[in-house]
Amino acid sequence: MDARQVGNSWVPVLGLGVLFLTGAAADLMDPEGDGAVAPHYVVGTLLLTLLTALWFLRHPPALRGTRGAYGLVAVLIEAGVLFGGAGGGLRGCMPWLILGLGTAWFGRLERARAIVTAGVVTACAGLLAVLIDVPVLSGVLQGLTATVFGVLAWRLYVMKHGRREPPRGVDLASLKLR
Question: What is the number of structural domains in the chain?
Fold first, then answer.
């Protein structure tokens, strides 16, 4: 089992990036293009929650907050996405806002500014998609959000595993091949 550290969150964060990338694709394929891909987020978040729970059993997060706080965040995110997505309020962007705010709260529990920043950027992008009624904008903002989560996943991965050293040159004369 890995040690508890913030870098263990890189796989769930990458999963969020994939969720938002597929959400952008679903939104751009939607003829109205109004960000109403709430069912995508409901199903995707259910799957991502299950995969994240399995990942965190083997690779625990830093757990700098209480266990009850982590459980509360997980339940509130899932319930908010489920009920917010079912209601279709805020032009279908309610799950997007809830995922952003939940990610920011998780980052606060982990005391990781990068995760908090990604969550706030996600919530702000979701709020922009609600307020500005341009057909393609929500898909573009979801793509931006996916990029933010991709960069964050890379940063957390590097935090966990470190950077690879560049290969060193080999002096062929020292090998004495003949």
Answer: 1
